Amino acid sequence: MKYRAAIIGCGKIGSEFADDPRIKGIFSHAGAYVACPETELVAICDSEHEKREICMKRWNLDRAYSDYKEMLQCEKPDIVSVCTPDHTHAKIITDLLKSRGIKAIIAEKPLTTDLKSADAIVREASAKKIILAVNYTRRFDPAHQKIQDLIQSGKIGTVQTINAFYSKGTLHNGTHIFDLARFLGGEITAVRGLGTLDDYGIDPTISIFCSFQSGATGFFHACDERAFTIFEMDIIGSKGRIRILESGNIIEIFSVVDDPFYSGYQGLCVFSKLEGMTDVLLHVVEDVVDSITHKREPRCTGEDAVRALRIAIAARNSVRRNGRLTAVSH
After folding, report:
1. Which CATH number is 243's domain given?
2. Are residues 149 and 260 in the same domain?
3. Each residue of 164-223: pLDDT tens digit?
4. Which of 73, 97, 283, 311 is the most exposed place for a label (fewest CB within 10 A)?
5. 87 and 102 share a domain?
């Protein structure tokens, strides 16, 4: 049996990344549905005529829609991807949850731009037993899963601090950083917003100090998206270090060694490297298919997305309170 799949939004992550020669493997929802043996891409939807036409021809589809409600009624998909601008997610996902026959929704991040609608969506999906997966991509990447295994097995000892650099909005890309920090370092309990870049419209990028439940601390540095895009993380443990570079494409793992420059001291040296972010959207679709088949939660749930959103909202509130340490609700 093949699950019928449909996509709402035919932009970069929906389809266009499939034609970027620099991207490693499958990095679009359309490409993932076509590549996965258990899914069939049956239709796409976009409000822009040109994007619909290009996407339809690119994937040899018979039908494209400007109205997603019409697409749902005519095509009756099992899985739907939501790849539209952030502010549209809440209404579209809410409408999908009302549609009969949908087994799973794959939402781009952030799940929504406000906590009230995000919480309501998670509750509704749970009540209707519809799988809700959110594309915080690195959770689905085998290399990042290996990093989590290394940390949890004690390979780098006790995590002391997690520092990161990000751009492109506290909700848009910041929640990617927050989710990855939670995935690797555990829950974030409090944040302090220390600086704001007005670089991403209504979603400014905030520099944030954070406290983890484990006792570790971290700092997420806001970088100006108008200059360049960056997504990097540096995890320092008592016995080693892990650096996630180039948006996760390159990962360096360090161990403690005798310092080569100063006698009697210990230092850090790279002892292995990993390559990440290959075929990541295919891994997302495969995971969701397996979740449907085995009636389990996906690797990144709606609740995970809500927790990342809570961190972002707490950081915004902290900035409004002149950088006061603000608890993250759970």
Report:
1. 3.30.360.10
2. yes
3. 999 999 999 999 999 999 999 999 999 999 989 999 999 999 999 999 999 999 999 999
4. 73
5. yes
Token pair belonging to 260: 């080569």
Asked if residue 37 has a cis previous peptide bond (ω within 30° of 0), the answer is: no
CA of residue 245 relative to chain centroid, distance: 16
8 token code pair = 């709402």
CATH number for the domain including 63? 3.40.50.720
| Domain encompassing residue 114 | 3-137+280-301
110 and 177, same structural domain?
no
Looking at the fold, whether 317 and 172 belong to one and the same domain comes out as: yes
Q: Alpha-carbon distance 256 to 131, whole Å?
A: 42
Of 62, 65, 38, the residue nearest 51 (C-alpha): 65
Helix, strand, or coil here: 171?
A: helix
- Count CA atoms closer than 13 A to 149's CA, side-chain side: 6
User: What is the distance, to the nearest Å, from the Cα of residue 67 to the centroid of all Cα atoms in its chain?
Assistant: 26
- Please tell me the total count of domains within the chain: 2
- Tokens for 265, please give them: 């001291």
What single letter denotes the amino acid at residue 41?
A: L
**Residues 8 and 112 occupy one common structural domain:** yes
| Degrees to nearest 5, angle at CA 110 with 109 and 116 | 145
Closest CA to 196 of 185, 187, 206, 208: 206
Length of the chain (residues): 330
Q: What is the pLDDT of residues 31-73, one digit of tens each?
A: 999 999 999 999 999 999 999 999 999 999 999 999 999 999 9
Clarify whether residues 293 and 319 are in a common domain: no
